Amino acid sequence: MTSHPTNLRWLGLGLGALLALVLVSGAPATAAITLSSTSLSARSLLPVQTEELRYGKLPPKGGGHGGSGATMVPVVDEDLLFMVQWTRDHLQADEAHQYATGAGVTVAILDGGFNLAHPDLVGHISPYAYDAIDGDWDPEDLGNGFDDDFDGITDGGVGHGTFVAGMVLLAAPDAIIQPIRIRDDEGWGFNHEMMDGLIMAWKARADIVNISGYSAFDPAGEIVDLIASMRAAGIRVIVSAGNDGVGALGELAHCPDTLAVGSTDTDDVRAWFSNFDDHAVPGMIMAPGVNLYGAYGTPDDDSSAYWSGTSFSCGLVSGAAALAIQLDPALSATALFDLLRQSTDPAFDDEGLVLPGTGRINLLKVVD
Ligand SMILES: [Ca+2]
Ligand SMILES: [Ca+2]
Ligand SMILES: [Ca+2]
To answer: 268 by DSSP, 3-state: which?
Structure first.
């Protein structure tokens, strides 16, 4: 496992600032990217990288650092199963699942490593599971027992992908998960690895792509051009708003080709950590993201935990999208995002005022 000295994080921030300057001076021209091969060998089609853009870190399981934002610590406690019901009730999941369950719909999850043996995930995994970090077909990641990035948290990225997959399946219990590992066991990844993962999702004809953990400050680079091409090819890309707690979205969450997802709490109030942009056009969407309860653990540890973050809200909305696509497989990204935005209940700020231009997803409204 490659170690990640802290100066690389500084490098990431520097590139982020550089990219911000580029954006102020005008958006780069969109490069058309097409995909014609039916082969599943993605690497030969990757664009040449002129520089290594490193995007931010996943919220660690230890919490408490800056960068892409700290969220609450995942806690393993089987007595907290009532939180599952809380989430289901807010989403009206049981009622919605009488109409659709996501059957036949594939959601590619670009994230940290997965526990594919977790009981909640078994039977839901696409044959096109992929690992863009190792360049192999096994996206499982147990961690290496070493704190490679010296942030005081050993293997801080392990468990995150599993938890997101559990959220997708909470909203769409019969969906197919295409697990794609694009982050190492500390939660870090490079843009070329995300590009690699996106192309693999495209080649496998995923219906939906779920990208989590992206910060408002991460440099997106060529990723936005690739996503524009994927949208034109009929793939719907849903991105977490990020956990920086700022009134802004990152380039990836803000771009017109993705749907950005923020977090709400048990009272449908925007979570303190959730990025939010009430000027986003078209608007973002909210979903429960505080104290969610779901699949966690490594292949040696099939536990569940509760955890908070926009990544997990994003998983719920990708599940909602799977319900809609089961009912109408031809839905374009534009039509799908419009449908989801219209399938919401009011969400509020911490003063009790209705958030403008957004709402909290309601699964029953998606299928109704
Ligand atoms: Ca691997
Ligand atoms: Ca670490
Ligand atoms: Ca490690």
So the answer is: coil
d(CA 337, CA 248): 20
| Per-domain residue ranges of the chain | 7-21+56-62+73-140+152-367
**Which residue has tokens 């892409």?**
68
136 exposure class (CB count in 10 Å sphere: 0-12, 13-18, 19+): exposed
> Of the bound ligands, which one is closest to the alpha carbon of residue 181?
1
152 versus 3: the higher-pLDDT residue is 152
The model's pLDDT over 138-165, given as tens digits with 9 standing for 90+, comes to: 999 878 999 988 888 888 888 899 999 9
Q: Which pLDDT tens digit goes with each residue over 177-215?
A: 999 999 998 888 888 899 999 999 999 999 999 998 677
What is the distance in A from the centroid of ligand 2 to the CA of 247?
Answer: 28
Centre of ligand 1 from the C-alpha of residue 115, in Å = 12
Gap from CA of 19 to ligand 1 centroid (Å): 31
CATH class as words, domain 7-21+56-62+73-140+152-367? alpha beta
| Contact (Cβ atoms closer than 8 angstroms) between residue 281 and residue 151 | no
CA distance 307 to 141: 19
Kindly give the distance from the C-alpha atom of residue 65 to the centroid of ligand 3, in angstroms, as a whole number.
16
Cα 134 to middle of ligand 1, angstroms: 5
Letter for the amino acid at 181? R
Distance CA 70, CA 60 (A): 7
pLDDT digits (tens, 9 = 90+) for 38-87: 333 333 333 333 344 555 555 544 332 223 333 445 666 656 666 778 88
Q: What pTM, to 2 d.p., does this model score?
A: 0.83
